Amino acid sequence: MEKLTLKVEGMSCQHCVNSVEKAVGELGAKAQVHLAEGRVEVEYEAGAVKPEQIKEVIEEQGYDVV
Question: Where are the beta strands (DSSP E) in the chain?
Fold first, then answer.
């Protein structure tokens, strides 16, 4: 398993947390959102998911990965 930590702007509530975790989960990865820090930690299988895909699904939810 690979680990990736992303700085994500625009998350402000539990709904934000749920939407990011669900979207990343649909890729087959596991996200843990740290709302207060504006940070998302992701565990994923390197051969199955690419970091670019993770960033893309988070941005599709309306948040900015910086």
Answer: 2-9, 30-34, 39-44, 64-65
